[in-house]
Amino acid sequence: MKILVVHQALADDAGPDEADVLVQVEAVSQALVRLGHETSVLPVSMDLETGRRELKQRAPELIFNLVESLGGSGRLIHFAPTLFDVLGIPYTGCSSASIYETSNKILAKERLETAGLPTPGWYAPGSGRFEPGAYIIKSVVEHASIGLLDDAVVNVSAPTELDELLEARRDRLGGFAFAERYIEGRELNVAVLAGRVLRPDEILFVDYPPEKPRIVGYESKWTPGSLAYERTVARAEFPPEDGTLLDQLSSLARSAWDLFRLSGFARVDFRADELGRPFILEVNANPCISPDAGFARALSRAGISYDEAIRTLVDDVAVGAART
Description:
Elements: E1 2-8, H1 16-34, E2 38-44, H2 48-58, E3 62-65, H3 79-87, H4 96-103, H5 105-114, E4 122-124, E5 127-128, E6 133-139, E7 153-156, H6 159-169, E8 177-181, E9 185-193, E10 196-197, E11 201-205, H7 218-222, H8 227-231, E12 232-235, H9 243-259, E13 265-273, E14 278-284, H10 294-301, H11 306-319
Parallel strand pairs: 1-2, 1-3
Antiparallel strand pairs: 4-5, 4-8, 6-7, 6-8, 9-10, 9-11, 9-13, 11-12, 13-14
């Protein structure tokens, strides 16, 4: 099959969070070649007309979609698959509609709440509900822990305090920030491949100083040598007493998959509070699939090779539901 691997064009000064897509492109391209496909790569930019012409000229039978942003903004992540829809070219992963709904964290949380799925409360100026206490200030539209530093967790007693913090941090958080009730507890995630829920991962914060928030921030993902990077460790082995929690995580991940009509692959991020109650933080409809990332680890534990996973994503397009 003639498959075109499409990713976002990178600026010369792209940070490690953005440049990681090139690792994914290389790994996916090599896997596709090993699987016998004719494979090429296309970076796309904000110039969608040029992208449209290039796609029509290359005429791929399938696009492997690795676009995580456009013009450096995660808010535009759905533009590329929307263009694929307009051109009638099938593509791997989630639909443009699913990516749009999940990439806006407030919109996703509203849908989770409406569906009765547990998610932490939240606040933004003019929306959400304020209660005094601890919040984590996050980007509404950026992923990869963009702008999430040690000062992300705050304790406030009035909405005006949050309003000021959100305004002050707006630029570093992609221009659109909100505050989510901070759950002191365990950080977990569940990968899903073509509807198959894989075993949960837990992120451990090993020997963190008491004053350092236990969150998966930017340093823990992208700054080798930092305390957070060295001491944030993933594990997949759980004691027997976690059986109920693991079942709940898997069930909730499946419910989120169905709610947002996901396809291909996704990852659902959770926090579990001190009582063991899980809360959905985010639904990532286009997670990182670098060979050293968490999704690949989940595949390996399930006995699924990287090549087999790529084959599944390609095959899932042919047998999956029609995109909307």
